[in-house]
Amino acid sequence: MHPKILIFGFGYTARFVAKKLATLNFQITGTSRNQALHGQHSEGYELIDFSRTDIEKSLHSATHILVSTPPSEHSGDPVLANFLDLIKKYAPQTEWLGYLSSTGVYGDHQGKWVDESSPAISLGQQGALRFNAEKAWTILAEAHHLPLHIFRIAGIYGPERNALTRIAQGKTQTIFKPDHFFSRIHVEDIAEVLMASIKKPNPISIYNVADDEPAPAHEIDAYAAHLLNLPPLEKVPFERAMLSPMAKEFYTHHRRVSNSKIKQELLVNLLYPTFREGLQKLYDAGDYSC
Q1: In this structure, how many other beta carbons lie within 10 angstroms of the beta carbon of residue 71?
Q2: Angle of CA points 165, 156, 16, to nearest 5°
Q3: 84-107 pLDDT per residue, tens
Q4: What strand order describes the sheet that includes 39-40?
Q5: CB 4 within 8 A of CB 64
C-alpha cells in the first residue's frame, strides 16, 4: 500500500515537495481554493477544495499531513479553525505531520545567531501569528499524540522567485542597511529537509530550514546583477526607503539562523549551501524569467 499525504495549501513550496514525494511513491492530494484546478493533474497529484467533505475523505486514507497554509489575524491557523475535530479523529493513523512555519518567530535578535531553542524577542505581527500557530499545533499534538514536526523556514527563493527575476523585471534599486543580515533557503532544499524528516520522524521536533550564509539583501542583489552582466543596483538607505509595513518589519527584525540541527539530526546536505550556488544554478537554467 502506497503512503498518502494530504497537503493543506498547495502553493509554490508544496509543488516542489510533491515532486520529491512522488519519487517515494506517495499518493498526493493538495487543497486549493481555485476550483478550476481541482481534479487529477499530469504531475501525479490531485487538488481538492478546502471543504469539510473533501478534507474528511482525504484524511480518512492519509498517512501523512503537511500544513502549508499561513495563519490569519482574525482566525489563526485555518486548518485548526476549520478541521480541528477531523485532525483529532484521524490522529491515530497519522504517521507524520509537518507544519511549515517561519524564522520570523524568533523576532529581533539584532543580527545574533539563533537556533531552535532561542526565545522569541520583540515579535512583529507576522512573527506573532506564526508563533501562536506553532503553540496551537504543539498543544494539539501533545494532547492527541500527533507526530508533529515544525519547520521554521527562512526567506524562500527558487525558480521564477529570486533576485535574478526581480532585476530582470526592472528592479533598479536595493535597500541598504549596514549589518542587517537575513537568512534564506532554496525551495529545493526545503523539499530535501522534509523528505529527510519523513524518512526519520522525530515527533514534537522543531527544525530551522536555512542555508549556511546569512547575508544583507544588497549583497544578494549585487551578485544577481553580476550574473546578469548588469551594473550594481542603486543603494537606497533604509531610512529613506518607501516600504510597506511588512517590509519595514523585515528590515527592523534580523537574526542569523543556524541550520546545524538539520545537518546533525537529519543528515541533510544542502544542494545550495549559499545564495551564490542557488543563484548560479537558476541563472544557468534560465529559471529567472516569468
Answers
A1: 22
A2: 90
A3: 999 999 999 999 999 999 999 999
A4: 39-40, 45-48, 27-31, 4-8, 64-67, 96-102, 148-153, 205-209
A5: yes
Cβ partners under 8 Å of residue 174, min gap 6:
217, 218, 221, 222, 233, 234, 235, 236
Question: In this structure, which amino acid lies at residue 266?
Answer: L
On whether the CB atoms of residues 150 and 131 are closer than 8 A, the answer is: no
CA atoms within 13 A on the CB side of 284: 6
| Residue at grid coordinates 519519487 | 23
Pull the grid cell for residue 193: 529537509
pTM over 0.90? The answer is yes
Q: How far apart are the first and last CA of the chain?
A: 39
Domains of the chain from N-terminus onward: 4-158+183-211+257-271 (3.40.50.720)
Helix, strand, or coil here: 242?
coil
